[in-house]
Write a structure and sequence with these properties.
With 107 residues, the chain is an alpha+beta fold. Helix 4 runs antiparallel to helix 5. The protein has a 3-stranded antiparallel sheet with strand order 2-1-3, with helices on both faces. The longest helix has 16 residues. Helix content is 47%, strand content 20%. The protein has a single domain, classed as 3-Layer(aba) Sandwich (GIY-YIG endonuclease). The chain starts with a strand and ends in a 10-residue tail after the last helix.
Length: 107
């Protein structure tokens, strides 16, 4: 069985990330508002990205990862712009791991 991680673009321009084992049924549920939650008040939605995964656990883990990404990273993924995605991942890593400005009081 194939599982899917998917990204929807909502009518307000926001993105929703989810996972499912039946992409067509899940998309129809989002379109009708049957899922409730975030997308119910942001219809219609458009499927802009879908990635097959080998297991539900893999799909869930990937969903959690992508949900934590910035809008720019999600848009690079949607565009399948691997170079841009790589740049964004490494830019964040560098900014999180560079020493900050020195506190003059601690010198």
């Amino acid at each position: 069985m194939t599982f899917w991680v998917y990204i929807l673009r909502c009518c307000d321009g926001s993105y929703y990330v989810g996972h499912t084992d039946d992409l067509d049924v899940r998309l129809a549920q989002h379109q009708t508002g049957a899922t409730g939650g975030y997308t119910a008040s942001r219809r219609p939605v458009e499927l802009v990205f879908a990635e097959p995964m080998p297991s539900r656990d893999d799909a869930f883990q990937r969903e959690r990862q992508v949900k934590g990404w910035s809008r720019a990273k999600k848009e690079a993924l949607i565009a399948r712009d691997w170079e841009r995605l790589h740049q964004l991942v490494h830019a964040r890593w560098r900014s999180e791991n560079l020493p900050g400005p020195r506190d003059p009081k601690s010198s």
